[in-house]
Write a structure and sequence with these properties.
The protein contains 9 helices and 11 strands. By secondary structure, the protein is an alpha/beta fold. Helix 7 runs parallel beside helix 8.
Length: 248
């Protein structure tokens, strides 16, 4: 069956030259963006109940832009003046770049990983005497605590925000040729919103091994998968599939 409509379970890209917009034009398909999950911040009271006192920590581990936003939000709510001496360990360049929203980059001690959390291990290992705080969501990848425990550093995880299922009731009678998922939480949201969901002729696209696993466990047939050596991005995987089915 030909592909005419695609639903991406993420917010619409803010950049004008997004690969999704280019894909839409090249392949003459309609792409909608609706987040299946969203983030809600914990209150400073809820963070305090986790026995977190920000002044006790000398270093912060930031794994995402959400972590950056909610760390500084909680600091403000607690009326905690973030000291200039605080060290920031950012999982990727994207997170480190985003940190500039809150701090003067060149005046802070910022250490940047490559992409995955395990790749940060050699950097963190050099600073074993620091006391690390990991502000995160309620859904933390097992790789993170495993890596930190193996390093033997003094660290504490605290939930600063939660991943919440979005209300998708407005999609009850709307059907797409392809649904695109990027996390197990997205799959969970689909079935929480539509417990009786039947795949039928809907094609399922998934990004990442944990999303593949969640889709299979939910009984979904996966038609499009990324990243692969041939299609490292989701847009490339979608385009390859669309070309193969729409030319028939």
């Amino acid at each position: 069956m030909k592909v005419k409509t695609i639903l991406v379970s993420q917010p619409k890209p803010k950049v004008e030259n997004s690969p999704y917009f280019e894909l839409e034009q090249r392949q003459k398909v309609k792409i909608d963006f609706i987040p299946f999950i969203h983030v809600e911040g914990e209150s400073s009271k809820e963070v305090r109940l986790q026995k977190v006192d920000l002044k006790d920590y000398t270093a912060i581990i930031l794994t995402s832009r959400n972590a950056v936003d909610h760390f500084f939000r909680i600091a403000e709510e607690m009326r905690f003046k973030v000291p200039d001496s605080l060290k920031y360990f950012c999982q990727s360049e994207a997170v480190a770049y985003y940190l500039q929203k809150y701090v003067v980059y060149r005046k802070r001690k910022i250490y940047v990983g490559k992409r995955t959390f395990s790749e940060m291990a050699p950097i963190i290992k050099k600073y074993k005497n620091e006391k690390f705080l990991l502000p995160s969501s309620d859904k933390l990848k097992a790789e993170v605590p495993d890596t930190l425990n193996k390093l033997g550093v003094d660290w504490k995880q605290a939930t600063f925000y939660r991943t919440v299922v979005s209300d998708l009731s407005h999609l009850e009678e709307v059907f797409y040729d392809i649904l695109v998922f990027f996390s197990p939480s997205g799959i969970e949201s689909l079935f929480k919103n539509f417990p009786n969901f039947k795949q039928n002729n809907t094609r399922i696209a998934v990004f990442g091994a944990t999303t593949v696993k969640a889709a299979k466990e939910a009984g979904l047939n996966i038609d499009i998968q990324a990243p692969t050596p041939e299609t490292p991005s989701m847009t490339m995987a979608l385009e390859k599939y669309i070309k193969s089915v729409n030319k028939k």
